[in-house]
Amino acid sequence: xxxxxxxxxxxxxxxxxxxxxGTAAQTQDKDYKEPPPAPLFEPSExxxxxxxxxxxxxxxxxxxxxxxxxxxVMGVSKSPTKCSTVGIQGIAWAxxxxxxxxxxxTAGISGGHINPAVTFGLFLARKLSLTRALxxxxxxxxxxxxxAGVVKGFEGSQYNVLGGxxxxxxxxxxxxxxxxxxxxxxxxxxxxxxxxxxxxxxxRDSHVPILAPLPIGFAVFLVHLATxxxxxxxxxxxxxxxxxxxxxxxxxxxxxxxxxxxPFIGAALAALYHVVVIRAIPFKSK
Length: 286
Known about the structure:
Order of helices and strands: HHHHHHHHHHHHH
Number of helices: 13
Number of strands: 0
Distance between the termini: 40 Å
Helix content: 55-70%
Radius of gyration: 19 Å
Largest sheet: none
Shape: globular
Strand content: under 5%
C-alpha cells in the first residue's frame, strides 16, 4: 500500500492513457463507453512522473528489441551456410517474439508502442497527445541507436562486414516495391494493434486485453516472413534509424527515406480504416 500511495503522491496515476494498450486496457465495466479523444497538447503531463516513466519504458524496450533482433541478423549473416543458422524464419521469430514479450511487459506502463509508426497511428486516432507522441518517438529512436551500438560493440569489425542489420531495398526490387512493402507491412501491424487493443472489444471480452501482445507479435512475425527478401523489413522507423546510424554506410542511407515514409503512410491508413470504417466514429451521433 505504501508503494501505491507513493505513486499517487508523485502523480504516477494522474494521467492515464486515453485508451491503454495490452493488459492496461482491461476494464471491469462491461457497459462500453467511447473514451474521450486525447487533447492535442497536454502541458500538465510534463509535471507527471508517469509521463517520464513511460518514456523510459519505451527507451528500454526499444533498446532490448534492437539488441536481440540485430544480433540475430548478425548471426545469420556471418554463417557461410544458412542451414547452420536459424535462417529467415528465425529472424522473423526474433522480431515477432521480442515484440510479443516487450508489449506484454510495457503495456501497462507506456502502452507498449516500441515503434514510432505505432505511436503515429495512435496519435492520429487521438489515443494520445502530441506531447506524448513526440516524446515516445524520441525515446524509441534513442533506445534503438543504443541497442544497435551495443551489438556493434560485441561484433567489432565484423559488424560493418555483415551489414549491421541495416535496412535497404534488396537487389531485384525497385524503390517503389520497397515503399509498397513497407506501407502494407506497417498497415498489417498497426491494424492489428488497433484491433487487439480496441476498448470496445475489451469491454465485451475480458480475455482480449490479456491476449493482445500475441496477435501483435504474430503480425510482426508474418510481415517479416513476407518482406525480409524485399527490404529486410523495416515497418519500424526507430529500428531502421538505429541500425543505419551505427552502421553508417552510404547504401544504408540511400533508401532510408522509404523506412520512414512507408511506415508512416501505412500507420495513417490503418488509423483511418479503424476509425472511419471499422468503428465508424465520425458517423456516430454526438
